[in-house]
Amino acid sequence: MQKLLIPIQGDFIAPRFDLATEILIVRFKNGATTSEPKIIILERPSDEALCQMAVEENITDVVCGGIEDVHYRFLVWKKVTVLDAVIGGWQKAVEKIVSGSLRQGDILIKSKDQRLAL
């Protein structure tokens, strides 16, 4: 079983790991989620609290926007897979990581939004 942590801001992946106050946690196994996503609201942004939460919750994967190198290295040292520089909606990120197709630096835009971006 894998456990995913995504710092979020509304419907989107938070642009910065260290400034997020909403955290999404999802369990998944064999290409499917195993429970409803859980959202945790932090009292204030704290990169140290997020790293500590990742360790305490036995997180295996983190998907985020920007992350300081020191926190990236800490999570990797703790055997957490970190996919950073991911931009877009957290629902699409969950779908893609569960299916094994999310990559570092992915830009997740809905098809109707792609027309607007062109």
Topology diagram in text:
Elements: E1 2-9, E2 12-13, E3 22-29, E4 32-33, E5 38-41, H1 47-56, E6 61-63, H2 69-77, E7 81-83, E8 87-88, H3 90-99, E9 107-108, H4 111-117
Parallel strand pairs: 1-6, 6-7, 8-9
Antiparallel strand pairs: 1-2, 1-3, 3-4, 3-5
How would you describe this structure in keywords?
118 residues; alpha/beta; Nucleotidyltransferase, domain 5; 4 helices; 9 strands; disordered C terminus
CATH level 1 class label: Alpha Beta
**Mean pLDDT score:** 91
Low-pLDDT windows of residues: 113-118
* Second CATH tier, the architecture: 2-Layer Sandwich
Number of strands: 9
Report the major sheet.
Answer: 7 strands, mixed
Distance between the termini: 39 Å
Tell me roughly what share of residues is in helical segments: 25-40%
Q: Domain count, please report it.
A: 1
Question: What would you call the shape?
Answer: globular
What count of helical segments does DSSP give? 4
Rg calculated over all Cα atoms: 14 Å
Structural class: alpha/beta
User: What would CATH call the homologous superfamily?
Assistant: Dinitrogenase iron-molybdenum cofactor biosynthesis domain
In percent, how much strand structure appears in the residues? 25-35%
CATH topology: Nucleotidyltransferase, domain 5
Q: H/E element string?
A: EEEEEHEHEEHEH
